[in-house]
Amino acid sequence: MNKIKQLLKNFISIFYPRSCVACGNALMQNESHFCLSCLMHLPETNYHLMEHSPLDYIFEGRVSVEKVASMLFYKKGNKVQHILHALKYKGNKEVGRFLGELYGRQLLKSMYYQSVDCIVPIPLHPKKFRMRGYNQSEWIAMGLSRSMNIPYFTDVLYRSEFTETQTKKSRFNRWENVKSVFATADVGKLKGKHVLLCDDVLTTGATMEAAITQLLKIEGVRVSVVTLACAN
Ligand SMILES: [Zn+2]
Q1: Within this chain, do residues 26 and 92 fall inside the same structural domain, yes or no?
Q2: Do 122 and 69 share a structural domain?
Q3: CA of 39 to the centre of ligand 1 (A)
Q4: Which of 27, 46, 181, 215 has the most other CB atoms within 10 Å of its CB?
Q5: What pLDDT score was predicted for residue 12?
């Protein structure tokens, strides 16, 4: 049966060659999502291991957070931009889970993330969810959950209203725009827990700040943050 499966796979790959998410080169049979070269040279931040990383100051004076880290450096035109594009706009949700799982394994080696109890992905508004068909942050959470061996919850934090695309707005406007968008339900699940909030990319942190603010209203909750990428 496995032989037939493999033959079929090879046959399919003649017509639909799989390619590396980061560089576009064709993948070898034993590679998934990334070619070996891209996988070996992902621009990792290693912020999860640092006592003071630049990201630890991003929420200073705004909201109380335990630890903030991103897996990769994002720069306009770099390979991480291709990865994020594939994850968000090309339907490649599996790459989110793949990188989440990879990152989860690294986070287990960080003293800051070992006490995390559960994972909560930043939710998409239902309208956007329907357009995209999936929430990319949820797929990252799935990967993290798998390697960290802790649950992820998608029903505790949700969006309460629609916000338009934020890329062209100033930081203040963005904050005005997002501060009331999150709501919580079934909060008993998170009571007293160290929650790992995850998303695909960290920029100004306005969305994240709104989500953290909402989660901190739950009794005894502490929040740490991870994203797949942050600006270099
Ligand atoms: Zn590659």
Answers
A1: no
A2: yes
A3: 7
A4: 215
A5: 62
Residue 147 CA to ligand 1 center (angstroms) comes to: 23
Mean pLDDT, the chain, integer:
90
**Does residue 182 contact residue 211 with C-beta atoms inside 8 Å?**
yes
Please give the distance, rounded to the nearest whole angstrom, from the Cα atom of residue 37 to the centre of ligand 1: 6
Q: How many folded domains does the chain comprise? A: 2
Q: Cα separation of 174 and 207, whole Å? A: 8
* 29 CA distance to ligand 1 middle (Å): 14
Q: Are residues 28 and 123 in the same domain?
A: no
User: What is the per-residue pLDDT across 100-153, written as a single tens digit (0 to 9) for each?
Assistant: 999 999 999 999 999 999 999 999 988 889 999 999 999 999 999 999 999 999
Confidence class of residue 3 from pLDDT cuts 50, 70 and 90?
confident
pLDDT at 195: 98
Which residues hold their Cβ within 5 A of ligand 1, which is an ion? 20, 22-23, 35, 38
Same domain for 195 and 122, yes or no, is yes
The reported pLDDT for the residue numbered 14 is: 60
How far does residue 42's CA lie from ligand 1's centre (Å)?
A: 10
Rounded to the nearest whole angstrom, what is the distance from the C-alpha of residue 152 to the centroid of ligand 1?
30
Range of 117's domain? Answer: 42-231
Return the exposure string of 18-34: e unless at least 16 CB atoms fall within 10 Å of the residue's CB, then b: eebbbeeeebeeebebb
pTM of the model: 0.87
Q: How far apart are the first and last CA of the chain?
A: 47
> Helices (H), strands (E): how many in the chain?
8, 6
6 pLDDT tier (thresholds 50, 70, 90) = confident
Residues 119 and 223 reside in one and the same domain: yes
